[in-house]
Input
Amino acid sequence: MRHRDIVILTGAGISAESGVPTFRSDDGLWLGHRVEEVATPEAFARDPAKVQDFYNQRRRQMAEVQPNAAHRAIADFAARFGGRLTLVTQNVDDLHDRAHAETTPAPGFELIHMHGELLKAECTATDRVLDWTEDLDAYHDSPFSPDGWLRPHIVWFGEFPLHMDRIERALSSCDLFVSIGTSGEVYPAAGFVRRAHMAGARTVELNLEPSLGASLFDACIHGPATEIVPAFLNSLDTNAWPNADSRA
Ligand code: OAD
Output
């Protein structure tokens, strides 16, 4: 089957080989912090300096990391694919953006950051968003309102993911759903495979190891993203379909 309408979902695993830490490691900490300490509106209200500092460190790290072969393989695929391709990322890094900036995506391509972007800041009073590359202070003046300050443009636990209407439209019409480098632990993204399956799409997981929802996919390929993503996308050109459970 030649696919015409593809949704790719990516998570932290695709950026791991660029040097960006994933979220869920064996010790259950993100860069030494418990999630509730840094990624909730309550944490920001309680200790804005700590939360800003956590994201300041991650924002600074963006200057030190580069897109890897997996990001570039998706960008190359987006440039040659003739159908509709929706790339939904849970990642707040800008590695997909940079990889796609090196190519010319075909007209049917769209990139959606559903959990926000590290290189943007948001006014707490107006919700307006602006590009941001510097550190943010605990109470950083907002250029949009004297009643607000700037916070990271990141979806925290307890907040709604962004652009869900566009994502729902893409999932309801896709004929192939590919999940790359995500543990399947965080909803709504973890439920996308079921939504795509209901729409009649084939579903495939590309991950270092079986994710929590691996059994929901029609096929799984396990290995490092920089190896399995280019190989899988090249196989779409030749119409090959992976074996049900293959390993790189
Ligand atoms: P996780 O850290 O939960 O999962 C990363 C997945 O990537 C794991 O299943 C790893 O096995 C896999 N992985 C690691 N290295 C890999 C590699 N080199 N190649 C392929 N796979 C690899 O990250 P996410 O699933 O993205 O939300 O986490 C989802 C959300 O949880 C994040 O977007 C974040 C967090 O709460 C927000 O910031 C709102």
